[in-house]
Design a protein that fits this description.
The structure holds two protein chains of two kinds. By secondary structure, chain A is α+β, with helices and mostly antiparallel strands. In chain A, about 55% of the residues lie in helices and about 20% in strands. Chain B has a single domain (about 1-165), classed as P-loop containing nucleotide triphosphate hydrolases (Rossmann fold), CATH 3.40.50. The chains are: A alpha+beta, B alpha/beta. The interface of A and B includes residues 179, 180, 196, 198 and 211 of A.
């Protein structure tokens, strides 16, 4: 210490002999000599301390480091407490001055935060609402309520317990060496034991297993199973994550645990290594662990399953209902079709119908000639067994039935077409006189027939004789002017006519018909009427004589002269006048006489 | 809160479990002790103006049939060495166990607990012996798990010792 030696040097000098004031001065000097530099330094320091500006500068240069140091020391709580009022006041002041500054700064954070919070709240509400709906009224719901009563747990917990596929209830982050808990997160409404003890016990069990079964250091206990609970354990060099899971977590859950552990191991490497019981540095780790608190509801799977059964059941019921409805309406449709057919059926009157014991009961009237309703049923494809008829007989005045009745009573020949309209029976075609007589006589007696019209009905005998009649009537026997003898050559015609007359008479005899023959004498218009009439009568008489000679019976022949009153032709030519000088024949059938 | 892993060491029936069961928070049954040889409990106390949670590893008492599993002691921050003051042998055994612990894990904060102080008339360790232990560097605490005497103090001493490290 050369300096000290130097300072002490004056001590050797004979200064104590001086008087007291001098002594005081000397002492002062001595002090100055000894502590002079320090005094100066102290004065400087004092000056520095008193100079506010200087002090602010000094503190300012280290304030950041100081805060950091304090935080590293673990005193961040005190620091936070100290700073909190100032920061709060600052914020309040900032908002008071200009709210936009803070609003702008927070804007990017607020939106997502609010959205997230709203979504979360809505999701939770919907979830609980759905579950409540689903579980509140079912038998299962009642069972769960009983279980809740029995176990003393809340109904919500019981529902959650049964409706979860899995749910991670707790996650522990444990310091591997000491078994002390570094972080612990718990799902909502899960009751837990003290995490530090549970973590310790888990570590103890780990070590117990490792010791007991001589496991290698890399072989560790990675899961525990207790009833419905499962504990997944993942280890890193310094930390252990244990997840307590109710139900069965999927295998990829372990992967998320590994990822979380790797992140934590990396992020907190130093803190983990130097851990001495202060979990302070791990305060933020709970956020990361919180992401491992996942859950999956069974409902998703069941929801897929449930509707299948329900849909099948509903479909079957719906199909049955549709089928039944369809079948019933088909039956109804068939019946209505049948009823319609029955009602439209002539000769049947339906008064009432009703369904009794699955059978239809039909009541009314039926003409004996009407169609059998059982046959109608068969035609409509309905089993006649399903119907019962109670139909009283009556005479129907339906045209169709009246016609049928007429046919039954009159037996018309095939050549007759019988129709009936409004009580008028009409016969057309041809029939034997016998049948014609019958319809004339019996027709009006038929129920429902008021009159008979046979104006279009021909005598079939007459029809048969028609050809000969036509041949006979086509003959014109010519006479010369003013004379009553046939023109030369007309005898041949007369002979042919005579032959045909014989044929006709023979046929009439066979058919029992009365036939007469009119011999009509004509003249041309020359001469006076009286002489013409006489001439024409003479001409007819001449032909009558000739036919009588030919064997035709006298009764059959009716000669008469008409003069020029019924000319065959107009007399504008010689040929016309010639044809009018003639005798023509007309076959007349006598009306039939009744045959019995 | 600061946590510390603390082991409770000592022979069978020196009252370790009694120390724990009346004065600490416990959730596990004692069956664990006999089954896996350890039971975890927790004791929260205030030392040096700080809340400290002692996670207590109550290690199954050592006897002729069962050695303690040293792996349970790994990374502990301190330990209570418990002996029965009415049975001198238990102190000898405890000190022998301590030797092994020190050998394995080095010197760690520890408190020597002489339990059953309520049975003064059967006390086998005289004050000279106790003084000798203190000389050897032991913090010695006479406790009674039965009356609760000095139990808190034993834990607090250990907590302070650990916080001082």
């Amino acid at each position: 210490m050369p300096e000290q030696a130097q300072r002490r040097a004056p001590l050797g000098q004979p200064q104590p002999q001086e008087n007291p004031p001098d002594d005081k001065h000397a002492l002062e000097e001595l002090r100055h000599l000894i502590v002079g530099p320090e005094q100066k330094e102290i004065a400087e320091i004092q000056e520095r301390l008193e100079d506010r500006e200087q002090r602010a500068e000094d503190v300012g240069s280290v304030v950041a480091e100081a805060i950091q140091k304090r935080r590293e020391h673990g005193g961040d709580r005190a620091l936070s407490e100290a700073l909190a009022p100032t920061i709060q006041e600052t914020l309040r002041e900032s908002v008071r001055k200009d709210p936009h500054v803070l609003a702008d700064a927070l804007f990017p954070v607020m939106g997502p935060a609010i959205r997230k919070s709203i979504t979360e709240a809505l999701r939770a509400m919907l979830e609980s609402f759905n579950q409540a709906l689903e579980h509140s009224l079912s038998i299962r719901g009642l069972q769960w309520r009983l279980e809740a009563l029995r176990t003393g747990k809340s109904f919500g917990e019981i529902v959650l317990m049964h409706s979860l596929l899995y749910r991670v209830e707790q996650v522990f982050l444990i310091h591997r060496k000491t078994g002390l808990v570094l972080g612990h997160v718990v799902a909502q409404s899960v009751s837990t034991q003290d995490p530090s003890m549970v973590a310790g016990m888990l570590s103890a069990i780990q070590q117990f297993v490792a010791d007991s079964f001589d496991a290698r250091s890399d072989e560790t206990l990675d899961s525990l199973n207790v009833g419905g609970l499962e504990v997944f354990v993942e280890q890193s060099p310094d930390a252990v994550i244990a997840a307590v899971i109710r139900g069965h977590a999927p295998s990829d859950y372990r992967l998320s645990m590994k990822e979380a552990l790797e992140e934590i191991q990396q992020q907190y490497a130093a803190a983990l290594e130097n851990f001495e019981g202060d979990a302070g540095p791990f305060l933020t780790v709970d956020d990361r662990l919180g992401r491992l608190l996942t859950a999956q509801l069974k409902d998703k799977q069941e929801a897929r399953k449930k509707p299948v059964a329900a849909i099948v059941a509903v479909s079957v019921i719906a199909l049955l209902a549709i089928g039944w409805l369809g079948y019933s309406s088909y039956l109804l449709f068939e019946w209505s079709r049948f009823l319609h057919a029955v009602r439209g059926q002539p000769g049947i009157v339906v008064l009432s119908y009703a369904k009794q014991n699955g059978r239809y009961h039909i009541q009314g009237f039926k003409d004996p000639l009407a169609e059998d309703p059982a046959k109608l049923l068969a035609k409509e494809g309905i089993d006649p067994q399903n119907a019962e008829f109670d139909l009283a007989p009556f005479y129907s005045l339906d045209d169709a039935i009246v016609l049928k009745r007429a046919q039954v009573m009159l037996h018309p020949p095939a050549s007759v077409k019988l129709t009936e309209r409004d009580g008028q029976l009409i016969a057309e075609g041809s029939a034997e006189p016998k049948w014609i007589a019958r319809i004339e006589e019996r027709g009006p007696w038929i129920a429902g027939v008021h009159g008979v019209d046979i104006s279009h009905l021909q005598n079939s005998d007459w029809v048969q004789m028609e050809p000969l009649k036509r041949l006979i009537e086509s003959q014109v026997l010519l006479f010369p002017l003013g004379r009553a003898e046939l023109e030369p050559g007309q005898e041949i015609k007369l002979a042919e006519a005579e032959k045909n007359i014989h044929g006709l008479l023979a046929q009439a005899g066979t058919l029992n018909e009365q036939v007469s023959l009119e011999l009509i004498g004509h003249t041309d218009s020359t001469g006076i009427e009286a002489s013409n009439l006489a001439l024409s009568a003479e001409r007819a008489a001449r032909i009558r004589a000739a036919l009588l000679r030919g064997g035709v019976s006298q009764a059959t022949l009716r000669p008469r002269g008409v003069g020029a009153s019924q000319p065959l032709r107009t007399e504008d030519s010689e040929e016309g006048r010639r044809l009018n000088r003639s005798v023509t024949l007309k076959v007349v059938f006598s009306p039939s006489t009744p045959y019995n | 809160m600061i946590q510390k892993k603390v082991c409770m060491l000592g022979s069978f029936s020196v009252g370790k479990t009694s120390l724990v069961s009346r004065f600490v928070k416990s959730i596990f049954s004692e069956a664990y002790l006999t089954s896996i040889g350890v039971k975890i409990d927790k004791k929260v106390l205030r030392a040096n103006d700080e809340d400290v949670a002692l996670v207590l590893w109550d290690i199954h008492g050592e006897d002729v049939y069962q050695k303690i599993r040293m792996s349970y002691l790994r990374s502990m921050h301190g330990y209570l060495l418990v002996a029965d003051g009415t049975r001198r042998q238990t102190l000898e055994d405890a000190l022998a166990l301590n030797e092994r612990v020190v050998q394995e894990f080095g010197k760690l904060p520890s408190v020597l607990v002489l339990n059953k102080s309520d049975l003064a008339e059967r006390w086998e360790i005289d004050s000279a012996g106790e003084a000798k232990l203190a000389e050897q560097g032991w913090s010695v605490v006479r406790t009674s798990a039965k009356t609760g005497d000095a139990v808190e103090s034993a834990f607090t001493q250990l907590a302070r010792a650990m916080l001082a490290v």
